[in-house]
Amino acid sequence: MSKIYYYNFKRFNCWLIFNIILLVKAVYCVVKCPIIFAYPQTYVLLLCLFVSIAAWCYKYLLKHPVALVSDESIKIDYCKPLKWEDIESVEEKDVYCCLTKKKVLVLNPKKGIDYKYNFLQKHNCGFTAFSIPLYGIIKPEDLEELQKIIKSKVK
Question: Is the CB of residue 75 less than 8 Å from the CB of residue 132?
Answer without folding.
Answer: no
